[in-house]
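User: Sequence recovery, please. Input:
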């Protein structure tokens, strides 16, 4: 391993991203990863690359590993002419479900302010959006649907109330619902499916307008879709295996496709998710379990030349995480990467410097031919046990199209948001 030499580009400032921008070329979809949900540099480098993609290549929305209702509130706020939301920090208090720090942090607050300022320079149809791809917001989405149909006074009201009533006995606790219905036929699948179908028929019959009005109708349907797929997700989660993960990433891909259709044939999205979602699952050990992810699904659906995935990783530092699911966040140490890992290889070669690698330049190297352990830190993290479960075997140059290596990293800066009492159930093999 010591004799392996990989071609790299220096990475010191946003101008050093020229190489990856050139490699992205005319790709329509750019996926930006992270090796943890709590590292300052992952957020700031993704923001720097996203700004350049928006300004120089016309990318027109960011979609993240976050809940649809919360992200849509941010989307509407950054498209307003006036800064009616007050401060970005106040706006981001909408992310009050654990782990609150994922999107409720000062790094995202700075990006939100930039997006609002950028949008003021463009007419409404050209303003950059911010959307959530995830599936967890079952109760929040049901509540949003009830509010929408009540204002519209349409035929979907009865179906929405019936779906909401079906879930009421479980006290807006998805785990309680999943445990209650996992092995019986008495569930709410028919109710949420009927609600989605009824709402879609009603929306097709209703004339909507361009801009936010059109988006509001889209958001209502999206909340209904979340309810359908969340119900499937929580039932599958209790039974174990890869099914729940595949439901979740399938929902993310379905949402991305809908957003592309909403924004038209020239739309270009930037996706912010964990490496385990954006790095093609076929080139990791996930493939052995028939586990898929959005990186794989996007390549399959739109073609590899239209999808560009950028992985992130670091050698050592600190991170925000919880010691157990639902626990308060802490600043934790990230130990030196384990021997033989991708991160150790780059640290040794670069002698502590940051670097950018392009997969197109790795032909004939170990990155094309050899599987490396690649670090993945979740929202739950125990540094002392890292070597036993935080490394994903990966064929790096196939998993990603580019990789940003940041040798020393530090924890991101959470906002002082108090988490509400309802924590989604722990559903990850290593709590991604």
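Assistant: Recovered sequence (432 residues):
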């Amino acid at each position: 391993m010591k004799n392996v030499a990989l071609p790299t580009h220096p990475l010191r400032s946003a101008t050093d991203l020229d190489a990856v921008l050139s490699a992205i070329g005319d790709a329509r979809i750019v996926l930006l990863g992270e090796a943890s949900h709590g590292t300052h540099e992952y957020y700031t480098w993704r923001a720097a690359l996203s700004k350049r993609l928006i300004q120089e290549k016309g990318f027109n929305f960011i979609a993240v590993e976050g809940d649809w209702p919360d992200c849509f509130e941010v989307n509407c706020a950054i498209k307003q002419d006036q800064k009616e939301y007050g401060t970005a920090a106040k706006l981001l208090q909408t992310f009050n479900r654990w782990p609150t720090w994922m999107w409720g942090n000062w790094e995202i607050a700075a990006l939100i302010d930039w997006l609002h300022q950028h949008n003021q320079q463009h007419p409404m149809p050209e303003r950059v959006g911010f959307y959530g791809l995830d599936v967890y917001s079952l109760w929040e989405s049901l509540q949003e649907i009830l509010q929408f149909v009540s204002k519209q006074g349409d035929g979907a009201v009865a179906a929405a109330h019936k779906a909401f009533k079906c879930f009421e006995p479980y006290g807006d606790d998805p785990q309680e619902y999943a445990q209650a219905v996992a092995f019986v036929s008495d569930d709410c699948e028919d109710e949420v499916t009927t609600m989605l179908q009824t709402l879609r028929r009603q929306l097709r019959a209703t004339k909507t307008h361009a801009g936010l009005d059109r988006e509001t109708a889209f958001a209502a349907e999206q909340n209904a879709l979340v309810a359908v797929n969340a119900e499937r997700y929580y039932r599958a989660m209790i039974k174990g295996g890869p099914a729940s993960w595949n439901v979740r990433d399938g929902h993310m891909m379905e949402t991305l496709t809908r957003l592309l259709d909403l924004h038209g044939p020239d739309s270009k999205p930037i996706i912010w998710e964990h490496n385990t979602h954006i790095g093609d699952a076929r080139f990791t050990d996930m493939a052995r379990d028939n586990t898929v992810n959005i990186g794989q699904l996007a390549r399959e659906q739109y073609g590899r030349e239209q999808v560009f995935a950028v992985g992130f990783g670091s050698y050592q530092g600190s991170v925000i995480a919880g010691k157990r699911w639902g626990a308060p966040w802490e600043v934790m140490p990230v130990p030196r990467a384990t021997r033989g890992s991708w991160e150790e290889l780059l640290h040794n070669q670069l002698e502590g410097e940051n670097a950018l690698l392009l997969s197109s330049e790795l032909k004939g190297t170990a990155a094309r031919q050899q599987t490396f352990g690649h670090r993945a830190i979740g929202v739950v993290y125990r540094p002392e046990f890292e070597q036993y479960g935080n490394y994903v075997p990966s064929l790096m140059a196939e998993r990603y199209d580019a990789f940003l290596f940041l040798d020393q990293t530090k924890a991101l800066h959470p906002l002082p948001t108090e988490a509400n009492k309802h924590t989604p159930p722990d559903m990850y093999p290593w709590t991604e």
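Residues 178 and 235 are 5 Å apart (CA to CA).
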